[in-house]
Amino acid sequence: MPKIELLNSKVLTEFPSGSSVNYHHERLYLIGDDANNILILDKDYLQIESLQLFDYPGKRIPKADKVDLEASAFITIHQQEYFLLVGSASKPQREKVFLIPFTETGLDMKSLRIYDDDKFTDRLKRKGIDEVNMEGITLINDYLILTNRGNRKNPDNHFLITEVGFWREDKKVNLNIVPVQINASDAPSISEICYVETFDMLLLTLSTEASDNAYDDGAIGNSYVGFINNITSKLNNNQLIIDTLINLSQVHADFKNEKIEGICVESVHDKTLVIHLVSDNDNGESKLFKAKLLLP
């Protein structure tokens, strides 16, 4: 069974609601679902830059107004790299996709483009997703995988297997909705996903929360890191099963009462991965964790 060893952690008191983290060109790119900015850090969690996305007063964007950016990934379109940010689509104002070009000097905020993905959301509902709440994203070869998070009232979690450009919805965009089986007694729901090409393995973050819908927060329970092995051979399955779950509260006390939302990989050496996780404690702070992931 894989093992996780915590290396260090850091509370970000001024950056709220961490929802996704990416490691790209030796920097960490952090977004929060009600944060005004993108936070860029080095590997030791020292701030390099803060890039403004919104201009709301105060540290946190009001719940009724936020785009609820929950998922992010670096992608390539026509040989140009972009930072892709996706709203949860749990409310109409959250049906947004942000696309920021990545250049030699970093993110080109002046060329930011914002798209509506309401047609994609409508298509999900027609295909049987009762409550849309997209929280994770990753690339696996030519597939773009999104996660739809469940809750106590709608407990099913799904992978939305589509392609780059899903926000420009038309009949040519592929979409396959696959339920995910989670074998845990406290029924955690999926947030972020991260593909590790070296091992053809999908990493997932999951957490329990006392909420009956995709809008309201609830009391935080356990958080997990999950694993799906040989993922590329399983993408056409009718159902996906998480092979292994690690309860992070049993790894280290620092993980208790933290809703882990984002995960990324810094490095791979033999069967040891250095990973970063980010949590949202629902109190206007974020917490980062650096850990070793030891594969059997």
Radius of gyration: 17 Å
Number of helices: 1
What's the CATH topology label? Neuraminidase
Range of helix content = under 10%
CATH architecture: 6 Propeller
End-to-end span in angstroms?
A: 6 Å
Order of helices and strands: EEEEEEEEEEHEEEEEEEEEEEE
Oligomer: single chain
Strand content: over 45%
Q: Outline the biggest β-sheet.
A: 5 strands, antiparallel
Number of structural domains: 1
What's the CATH class, please?
Answer: Mainly Beta
pLDDT averaged residue by residue? 94
Query: What's the β-strand tally?
Result: 22
Keywords:
5-stranded mixed beta sheet; 296 residues; mainly beta; 22 strands; Neuraminidase; 5-stranded antiparallel beta sheet
Describe the fold and architecture.
With 296 residues, the protein is mainly beta. The protein has one domain: 6 Propeller (Neuraminidase). 3% of the residues lie in helices and 51% in strands. It contains one helix and 22 strands. The strands form five sheets. Strands 6, 7, 8, 9 and 10 form a five-stranded antiparallel sheet that branches. Strands 11-12-13-14-18 form a five-stranded mixed sheet, with no helix packed on it. It has a four-stranded antiparallel sheet with strand order 1-22-21-20, with no helix packed on it. The radius of gyration is 17 Å and the shape is globular.
